[in-house]
Design brief:
alpha/beta; Rossmann fold; 7-stranded parallel beta sheet; 7 strands; 35% helix
């Protein structure tokens, strides 16, 4: 083998390895994507929500019910200047199938985080929800559940469950919380958030 062929083969092998490394990092072992830090980073991060990201929102089956309003979620991100794409699953024959298609679309759009409102991973739909959320996990995209009715049993499928309470003193803004998840900052598994105007703490 000539030296030139050896160098070309070595370069090709390095390229294949480099292509595989991001794929291996997509699914951290034993934890959810976006929930891989146990301690605070040594370098302080900017606490402002990032505005150069895309947030995918999979809506509730009852989008106008108080406490699960899709509009409140969308408006809160809009006020923070965060770009969001919304997929409605209301009035669909099988909401989990619409959610799966929406998650697939968000992966294609390269969303930084996928928010799922009022997931009900119970009964006959449990496996279907696990498969749908597993698409995001395999793609390395963190998932945040908002006001889940029944979260999936596998807690590696979502980074955190967010509970909207616009009157709670300890609530953090939805945009700030999603920024923490996107940037892999330490955060709780159950977080009280607010969608109220002016609540960016």
């Amino acid at each position: 083998m000539t030296a030139g062929r050896f160098v070309r083969r070595l370069a090709a092998a390095a390229a294949v390895l480099a292509a595989c490394l991001p794929l291996a990092a997509c699914e951290p072992a034993g934890v959810a994507v976006g929930d891989t830090q146990d301690t605070a980073p040594a370098v302080a991060h900017n606490e402002e929500p990032r505005v150069d990201v895309l947030v995918g929102i999979i809506g509730s089956t009852h989008p106008d019910v108080a406490g699960t309003s899709d509009t409140r979620v969308i408006d809160a991100l809009d006020r923070a200047g965060v770009k969001a794409v919304y997929v409605s699953v209301a009035d669909t024959q099988r909401p989990v199938d619409a959610a799966r298609q929406g998650i697939s679309d968000m992966i294609d759009r390269r969303a930084y985080v996928i928010v799922v409102n009022s997931v009900n991973a119970d009964g006959d739909d449990a496996d279907a929800w696990s498969d749908a959320l597993g698409l995001a996990r395999s793609a390395g995209i963190p998932v945040a559940l908002i006001d889940p009715i029944t979260p999936p049993d596998d807690d590696t499928l979502y980074a955190a469950a967010l509970h909207v309470d616009d009157h709670a003193a300890n609530a953090t803004s939805l945009a700030k919380t999603l920024a923490d998840i996107i940037n892999d900052r330490p955060h709780g598994r159950d977080i009280v958030v607010t969608t109220a105007s002016g609540q960016y703490r």
